[in-house]
Amino acid sequence: MQIVILKDSASVAEYGANIFIKQLQKKADSVLGLATGSTPVSLYQGLIAANKAKQISFAGVKTFNLDEYLGLEGTHPQSYRYFMNEQLFDHIDIDKSRTFVPPGDAENPIEACQGYEEQIKAAGGIDIQLLGIGRNGHIGFNEPSSGLMSRTRVKTLTKATIDDNARFFKVGEYQPHLSITMGIGTILDAKKVVLLATGENKADAIKATVEGALTAACPASALQLHQDAVLVIDEAAASKLTDCDFYKHIEAENQKLLAKLGL
Ligand code: F6R
Predict the structure, then answer these.
(1) Do residues 192 and 26 make contact, with C-beta atoms less than 8 angstroms apart?
(2) Catalytic residue among 138, 142, 165, 234, which?
(3) Where are the membrane-spanning stretches (predicted)?
């Protein structure tokens, strides 16, 4: 795992956006794995700005989102499809028929999960997957106890996740307790994984991800198995890491090497 510790959330978003910009400049028909939640919003703003400045184009891109609430149609303001349209797709030169979000309104969700896996495969697999992390270490909606080799499936949300996400729903509004999510195995199949985390409330989850055991109790710890996983975190999210200075030292050495190689 590459661990990049930056001073604040704005720097995390900028660093994360640059990874995606470079990816699109290198491979214009990239398959992107995308996430929702608060964390990636500023990164998406960076991608929108780069698209408007003609530094990158999404015309040849396909996207696959991590997850969706089961029981919400894409027109529902709390659905992840709606979120993606609002936060990214409506502002870039992407053809929406090339953007995929698990179908929360599927009549047969079990078949829909299998279908989602097949769509990812047919697209050639995900080149780069963006992730946030839950306070409980979840990635996508893979809650603690999720199988480390799991594939896209229906998952029940924990009370902690329902409580965390209640802020997006109006008082009295129906909030789903089920989701369709890519599995941890699906995420690990992406060629590159970029996880962003900001704020002190993510510090325990980051500690468990980086310095804890590989365990279903912290789904993000599965990234320890990935060959090209980058964690971009701010000082607050890094605040419980024991070896913080060592990770900063490694990153400084990495940057020196890349500069020497002109990369
Ligand atoms: C979103 C997702 C979740 C979030 C996580 C963090 O598609 O899969 O795993 O990334 O819950 O959410 P925020 O960024 O709102 O703290």
Answers:
(1) no
(2) 138
(3) none
Span 15-39, pLDDT tens digits: 999 999 999 999 999 999 999 999 9
**Residue of the CA atom closest to atom 12 of ligand 1:** 37
User: pLDDT tens digits for 201-235?
Assistant: 999 999 999 999 999 999 999 999 999 999 999 99
Q: Domains along the chain?
A: 2-261 (3.40.50.1360)
Q: Could you give the 3-state DSSP secondary structure of residue 106?
A: coil
Residue 136 designated active-site: yes
Single out the catalytic residue among 51, 67, 68, 226.
67
- Find the residues whose C-beta lies inside 6 A of ligand 1: 35-39, 66-67, 132-134, 138-141
83 Cα: distance to centroid of ligand 1 (angstroms): 12
